[in-house]
Automatic annotation (TrEMBL):
PANTHER family: E3 UBIQUITIN-PROTEIN LIGASE NHLRC1-RELATED, PROTEIN LIN-41. CDD domains: NHL. It comes from Adineta ricciae. This is NHL repeat containing protein-like protein. Transmembrane segments: none annotated. Signal peptide: none annotated. One of its GO terms (biological process) is proteasome-mediated ubiquitin-dependent protein catabolic process.
Length: 441
């Protein structure tokens, strides 16, 4: 590659994060309907912590500088899709109405056409060699164009997808968010294939690193955005599962929106799409159907705080165990309700171990067995590996948490144990007759 002379700093935030890093699952609303609409497809946080949001229906870009509540509005386009902001503050946008990518200067008073394309760019990205990437979500490709030299605006190189919609390694199906590492490896949120594809530099055959087609402890349903930390661990917006997940040395885990249920509570999302880190490791996400931008605060970034097992709980699901209709199911399931006790707010880990396929639910305040979707905080099937559930989350001392242990299949029986660890002492206590407990509380 001859572009080494043009190597630049990265324009975006890639914080150094521990594999055990923990975010408060209750988001803070950063901006609401006046600043975002349900079709906002792009959000960018640059290194000085200025936040940019592209608002499609108003066809403009909105800017918040750190510490200021004043919103600056740039542009008056007809229709916009992709957004990327360079380190000098110039704004790259996809002008959807005329199929071209434009660069607006810092004062947004003049624009330069960068690429003339045949389809809209859902995602834009500028790598450290100053190549502009565009994900053609209707063209099922990702292309790039050098910004270093004067070139024909229609001259682009295809870097992913053969233009035919499909699931093969050289195909994409409605690609959306993209990310290019400092090694020029391209990651693509291949939304309709429910996967994330990695295209090594110079390779047109992609490698599935998450989602459909790869054996892992997590599945995706329409991923729409990708971002990375300093160690190149993936953070994925899993849009139709209403959550954000991350990769780690031991597999994937959910960070926010982990109930699996869309909603408007602080710990819920509804069809999230663009997301990004700020310089402190906090996560900003456009929560589209709730028409708000949520900010999730990084509360723990140490590598060893949650690693010491504080408590071990053992029990058994038998024919004498209580039964209920599991969340989203019509069959009866044996279950056991367990109260989670801890001495202070912090990040905690709960992992099951059993010869049967366990399924875990964590509820706040109380668990209503007649309405198992109410107060649902977290749910998981196999993040612990080997068909076992695992929760890694910030727990608040002012909230009561009820862990419900059940199974993936109806009326399964068997022994199980739960290991609990965290930054403070944590214990687990069985609630022996949960129906009576519920009536009394």
């Amino acid at each position: 590659m001859t572009a080494d002379l043009f190597i630049r700093e990265v324009f975006y935030n890639q914080p150094k994060l521990s594999p055990d890093a923990c975010w408060n699952p209750d988001g803070i609303t950063f901006a609401v309907e006046a600043a975002i609409d349900w079709k906002s497809s792009s959000l960018f946080v640059e290194r000085s912590n200025t936040v940019y949001v592209l608002k499609i229906w108003k066809a403009d870009v909105r800017e918040w500088r750190e510490g200021s509540t004043t919103v600056t509005i740039f542009g008056n386009w007809f229709s916009l899709k992709g957004l990327f902001v360079s380190i000098d503050g110039d704004i790259h946008v996809d002008n959807d109405s005329i199929d071209q990518v434009e660069e607006w200067t810092l004062d947004a008073r003049k624009s330069v056409i960068e690429i003339q394309i045949i389809s809209s760019c859902w995602g834009l990205f500028v790598d450290i060699a100053n190549y502009l990437y565009c994900s053609l979500f209707n063209g099922h490709q990702v292309v790039k164009h050098s910004l270093n030299v004067s070139m024909n605006m229609e001259t682009v190189d295809v870097v992913a997808g053969n233009g035919t919609k499909g699931p093969d390694s050289n195909m994409l199906a409605t690609p959306k968010g993209i990310f290019v590492s400092i090694n020029f490896d391209l990651y693509v949120a291949d939304s309709e294939n429910d996967r994330v594809q990695l295209f090594k530099f110079g390779q047109l055959d992609g490698i599935t690193v998450a989602g459909r087609g790869v054996s892992s402890n997590i599945s995706l349903y329409c991923p729409t955005a990708i971002f990375m930390d300093a160690d190149e661990y993936l953070f994925i917006v899993d849009q139709n599962n209403h959550r954000i997940i991350r990769s780690a040395p031991d597999g994937f885990r959910c960070l926010v929106g982990c109930s699996g249920v869309q909603g408007e509570a602080p710990n819920q999302l509804a069809y999230p799409s663009p997301a990004a880190f700020d310089r402190y490791g906090n996560i900003f996400v456009a929560d589209l159907n709730n028409m708000r931008i949520q900010k999730f605060i990084l509360v723990n970034n140490t590598s060893n705080t949650p690693s010491i097992v504080q408590s071990m709980y053992s029990s058994e699901l038998t024919a004498d165990s209580q039964m209920y209709l599991r969340h989203g199911k019509r069959e009866d399931y044996y279950y056991e309700a367990i109260q989670v006790n801890f001495v202070d707010s912090g990040c905690y880990i709960l992992v099951s171990n059993s010869t049967v396929d366990t399924y875990g639910y964590l509820y706040t305040n109380n668990f209503n067995l007649f309405n198992p979707s109410k107060n649902l905080f977290l749910q998981d099937d196999n993040l612990g590996g080997g068909d076992q559930f695992k929760f890694t989350s910030y727990l608040d001392i002012n909230t009561t948490y009820i862990l419900v242990v059940t199974t993936s299949a109806s009326k399964m029986q068997g022994n199980f144990s739960i290991s609990a660890s965290g930054s403070n002492k944590i214990t687990l206590t069985r609630i022996s007759e949960y129906l009576q407990y519920l009536l009394n509380n």
